[in-house]
Write a sequence for this structure.
């Protein structure tokens, strides 16, 4: 499991964001998820897949409640893809999964992308490490780094790759091309 130290070593102390455990528990996060965000944190930017520095609404760390059929849903906004003001990553407070939603008119959709916040943080860490290493690699080395990254991510959270058009499957495929 990725630690706060792992994130700081890769992204730098000032580029890792943590939050108050008690505040996270007040909104209803399970202890494990609250610890992950308070003790480990999130990188502020991970290559071209994640940033906590989103513009517009919904803002980072805002809480939203709504009904989905008969089920009450409560989500915590974590960030978004860099440069995309229509998409947001979220943590489902009730069941702990990480999702991504698109608010663009005519393209509204929601996708579950990781099983837990721990898996999401690890994916961001591994992707950031890949990005650093691949920037100075030859094309052959980059292919090998991509192969290893894909294997490690699938081993970490195979759910994230269940569909060939899932968020992480597409992100890895773009690295291959």
């Amino acid at each position: 499991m990725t630690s706060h130290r792992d994130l700081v070593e890769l992204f730098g102390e000032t580029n890792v964001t943590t939050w108050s455990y008690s505040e996270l528990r007040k909104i209803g996060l399970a202890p494990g998820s609250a610890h992950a965000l308070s003790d480990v944190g999130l990188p502020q930017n991970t290559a071209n897949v994640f940033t906590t520095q989103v513009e517009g609404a919904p803002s980072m760390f805002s809480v939203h409640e709504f009904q989905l059929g008969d089920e009450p849903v409560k989500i915590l906004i974590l960030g978004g893809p860099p440069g995309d003001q229509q998409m947001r990553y979220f943590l489902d407070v009730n069941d702990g999964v990480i999702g991504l939603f698109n608010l663009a008119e005519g393209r509204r959709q929601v996708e579950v992308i990781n099983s837990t916040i721990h898996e999401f943080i690890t994916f961001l860490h591994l992707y950031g490490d890949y990005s650093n290493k691949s920037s100075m690699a030859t094309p052959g080395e980059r292919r090998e780094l991509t192969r290893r990254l894909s294997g490690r991510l699938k081993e970490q959270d195979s759910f994230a790759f269940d569909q060939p058009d899932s968020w992480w499957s597409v992100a890895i495929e773009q690295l291959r091309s």
Remarks:
- The helical segments are 4-11, 21-26, 31-40, 117-134, 139-156, 167-176.
- The beta strands are 16-17, 42-43, 45-46, 50-51, 63-68, 71-79, 87-92, 98-102, 109-114.
